[in-house]
Amino acid sequence: MSTHDVVEAVAGLVDKSVLCREPGPDGVRYRLLYTLRHYGLDQLRRLPGEETAARRRQRDWMQRCATARERAWFGPGQRETVARLRADQDNLRAALDFCLTTPGERLAGLRLAGTLWFYWHACGAPREGRHWLDRALAANPEPTPERARGLWVAGLLAAATQDLARGLDLARNARRLARHLGDPAETAHAEYVVGVLQLFGNDLQVALAHFETAVARGRVPGQHLSMHGLDKVELAFALALLGQADRAVAVCEAALRDCEEHDEDWVRSYLLRILALAHTVRQDFSRAERHALDALRRKLDVNDVIGIGLTLDLLAVIAAERGTPERAAVLLGAGDRVWGDIDKGRWGSDALNSARRRCEERTRGTLEEPAFQRSYERGSAYGLTEAVAYALSDEQSPDETTERPSNGVRLTRREAEVAALVAEGLANQQIADRLVIARRTAEGHVERILSKLGFSNRSQIAAWVTAQR
Questions:
Q1: Alpha-carbon torsion (151, 153, 155, 161), positive or negative
Q2: Do residues 180 and 196 make contact, with C-beta atoms less than 8 angstroms apart?
Q3: Disulfide: which of 55, 148, 303, 315 matches 178 by Cβ 3.0-4.6 Å?
Q4: Cα gap 208→153, rounded to integer Å
């Protein structure tokens, strides 16, 4: 069948309302109606072996997508990668469930779950990732490269839900197996997780020595560039926690150049947060806030929920130090709301959690209790996007003179519609589909909005829309 025949067939099915045409992050997508989908599945099951063959093809397609996206993760297009994976959540779940419930397919399930380590960890899905990895590891006890990968990924995700002891055990088992298999890349990945868990277990000197060794060694063959970058993040983090702010800044600035060279944002967001922490240690709160806000924008782009929670906590500390207790109280509430959806115990070191507690005590001491509660409850009512928008809406520090857009900025009716859709997180193609206009027209509207408001990115538009409301 030719491409033309496929297009004609799909168009005919859309005309008959058999398929629904919907905008997606990677263009138009088509969805089969629920009842028709189940009817088709029933028909497929009447043909011996056909359902299994179809599900295997779907799984293989999902594995190819996951492998390509992992390979390209340290580079441009991370936001689009996350959007596509989120749009394919049901496809991913179907593929994993097929593998873990069908004889002979279990190793493929472990391979797929391990390939998506970056999605589970970086993009707000640690609990779901842990669910699939735990099932896949239980089904695959044999000493394979897939198991070595799965063990350290499961260890990292266990740490994200505050199960540090189990996470460390899993990571050490992964390192042991990877060494036995002679796999230097998976050994380096497992060693990263071991070091992180030592860091968050407050064994700071051991963690510092661990990451100094890893960074001095350099990238080993096959090691993912993101994991190599995270070695530098954790080295700088350990230095900042130990009060060695100058060394932490130097490590971050050198690593940032690698990220900029590859047009990468996720690791860069962590380096920016550590820079903010280091400048907080230096008591340069203006610079610290600037780096933290930059980190927050980039984290929202990939839905890094853990990173957003960590950064909101840091921004609350900075706000308290800068003499803006109401803002600090709102950020404390927003941070607690974000962490409530992950783990109320908070993923991070005791030093950071202690700083957050001192911030709350100081803010309560500065504000009268009713005022603190009003601000705190305002922040705790925010969703993730609203919390980030609030933080970004007060980007200019009190001692800076750059004028922000005022409420007097006037947008046309169409520009206001486009700005509202930007605030919803829609990409230009999705805006065009929603408003039934050309993509280039939507792009032109966004560019004019940025120009009118004096902004440089879409996150600022979202924050401005929220403020106007």
A1: negative
A2: no
A3: 148
A4: 22
Structure tokens, 308:
């957003």
3-state secondary structure 304-369: CHHHHHHHHHHHHHHHHHCCCHHHHHHHHHHHHHHHHCCCCCCCCCHHHHHHHHHHHHHHHHHCCH
Inter-residue contact 390 to 334 (CB < 8 Å): yes
Cα separation, 293 vs 106, whole angstroms: 43
Those residues with Cβ within 8 angstroms of residue 2's Cβ, 6 or more apart along the chain or in another chain: none
| β partners of residue 19 | 32
What is the C-alpha separation between 134 and 147, in angstroms, rounded?
A: 11
Contact 315, 293 (CB under 8 A): yes
Model pTM?
0.79
Q: Which tens digit of pLDDT belongs to each residue from 221-260?
A: 999 999 999 999 999 999 999 999 999 999 999 999 999 9
CB-based contact 446:428 (threshold 8 Å): yes
DSSP code of residue 242: T
CA–CA dist 256, 328 (Å, integer): 28
The per-residue pLDDT for range 96-130, each reduced to its tens digit, is 999 999 999 999 999 999 999 999 999 888 889 99
CA 289 to the chain's CA centroid: 20
